[in-house]
Amino acid sequence: MKQKYGKVAVVMGGPSAEREVSLMSGNGVLDALRSRGVDAHAFDPAERPLADLKTEGFDRAFLILHGPFGEDGTVQGALEVMGLPYTGCGVMASAIGMDKLRSRLLWQALGLPVPQFELLDEHSDWDAVVAKLGLPIFVKPNIEGSSIGISKVKQAADLPAAFAEARRYDRVVLAERFLDGGEYSMPILGDEVSGFVTLPAIKIEPATEFYDYQAKYFRDDTVYRCPCGLPAEQEATIGELVKKAFWAIGGRGWARIDFMTDAAGQPYLLEANTAPGMTSHSLVPMGARQAGMDYPDLVLRILDTTLQGA
C-alpha cells in the first residue's frame, strides 16, 4: 500500500464553520487508511500552510474538508497549481456544488426538478414570499453546509429573524418551499469517463423539527433507513436523476446528492455535497455498507481515483 499510494495527506479541519465535523470525518478516514497499511498523515490547513504538502513530500491528498475553503474549489485550485493529486471534485464542480443558487439554476436549465425558491434580502416583502412559497418555509444560507444557519419558519413574522441568522453565514440567502414527503440522500462514485455508480439511498427521519446540525452529527435519535423504503424502480429512476445532476456540475470522484419528495413521491434535488461527511453518523458510509462495501474499502476506493493518469 505504501508503494501504491506513497505518502498521503488527509486534509481535514480547516477554517470553516464545519471544522469540528471535518476533524471527525478526517480522523475516521485516517484510521481507515492506516488500518490498510497506507502511509497516511493528518494535515490541517488552519494550522499550517498548504505549501507544506509539497515541501514535506506528500504524494497525494485525501480531501475531507467541509464547507467554504475546503469544498468550494479554493483548496482544489491550490492543489492543481502544486500538481498534487487529490480526491473528489475539481475546481469548477466544487465551486458550483457549494453554491446552492447556481447549482439549482443549472439543474433548472436542464429540466431537472428543484424546489421552488426565492432569494431574500433586507428589502424582501415577507408576506409576498409566504404567499408564493406557502408555510412552513426553509431559510438557508447559499454557501454553507451541515444545516448551519438554516431555519424552518412557520409564520411570516419569523422570516426576518431567520433571514438574519442565515445572513450571518453568507450574503446570499434562499427561502425554499417546504416539501411534505421524505428526506433522502444518495451517494455517487465515479466520473464521466469511467461511469457513475450510485449507492443505495438513505431516508432520514430526524426526531428534531428538521435535519439540523445536532441531528446530523450528535443526536442518537435520528433514524436512518437504508434500504430507504422506496420501490426499487423509483429508486433506480432517482439514481439516474442523481447521475444527471452530478454530471451537470462536472462532478468526479465521489459525492452525495440530497433530495426530498413531495406528497406524491416526486423527487426534488436539494444540493450536491462534493466532500461529504465520513463520521459515524454520515450517510455515504451507510449507503456503501448496504452495497456490501465496508468503511476502509470505501475510503480506498475514493483514494484510488487519485491514481488515474498517474
From TrEMBL:
Q: Where is the ATP-grasp domain?
A: 104-304
What reaction does this catalyse? 2 D-alanine + ATP = D-alanyl-D-alanine + ADP + phosphate + H(+)
Its pathway, per UniProt, is: Cell wall biogenesis; peptidoglycan biosynthesis
Q: Which residues form a coiled coil?
A: none
Q: Which residues bind Mg(2+) 1?
A: 258, 271
Q: Which cofactor does it need?
A: Mn(2+); Mg(2+)
One Pfam family named in its UniProt record = Dala_Dala_lig_C
Q: What class of enzyme is it?
A: ligase
> The organism sits in which domain of life?
Bacteria
Could you list this entry's UniProt keywords, alphabetically sorted. Answer: ATP-binding, Cell shape, Cell wall biogenesis/degradation, Cytoplasm, Ligase, Magnesium, Manganese, Metal-binding, Nucleotide-binding, Peptidoglycan synthesis
Tell me where it resides.
Cytoplasm
Q: What EC numbers are recorded for this enzyme?
A: 6.3.2.4
Identify which residues the record assigns to the active site: 18, 146, 282
Question: What are the GO BP annotations of this UniProt entry?
Answer: cell wall organization; peptidoglycan biosynthetic process; regulation of cell shape
NCBIfam families in the record, alphabetically? D_ala_D_alaTIGR, PRK01372.1
Described purpose of this protein according to its UniProt entry:
Cell wall formation.
Can you name this protein? D-alanine--D-alanine ligase
Q: Which organism is it from?
A: Leeia aquatica
